[in-house]
Amino acid sequence: MKKNPIPILQGTLDLMILRTLSTMGPQHAYGIASRLEQVSGNLLNLNQGTIHPAGAAWMDARLLGQDGEQPRSKVLRHHEGRLKGLEEETARWRQMSGVVEKLLAEEQ
Question: What is the reported pTM?
Fold first, then answer.
């Protein structure tokens, strides 16, 4: 039975990319997308075009770097000692998910 893909919630892709790079080390966008699909049990349907813009934003913030000049050869990696972005995103996500859980638990 094929699972229906779920949309990625705004703001969660950054955290997922940072966490994947933290866990697996430098990866091409394809490797990141494949890992996220695997972890989600194929509930996320991603491609390199989804990963590149998010990675570019983190490179602009100097939290990620890349190896290679051509789009297909770009490997995203954490800058040395710059896991602060991951820690901050993780804290924000835990706060937000806690609020959502409280709201869902309320009785109408």
Answer: 0.72
Asked if 46 and 28 touch (Cβ cutoff 8 Å), the reply is no
Task: Read off the pLDDT of residues 70-98 as tens digits, 9 standing for 90 and up.
Answer: 555 566 665 555 566 778 888 989 999 99
The yes or no reply on domain 12-105 and CATH 1.10.10.10 is: yes
The residue written with tokens 């969660």 in the block is 12
Instruction: Output 74-82 pairs: Cβ under 8 A, ≥24 positions apart.
Output: 74/28, 74/29, 75/26, 75/27, 75/28, 76/17, 76/21, 76/26, 76/27, 76/28, 76/29, 76/32, 76/51, 77/21, 77/25, 77/26, 77/27, 78/18, 78/21, 78/22
Q: Where are the domains of the chain?
A: 12-105
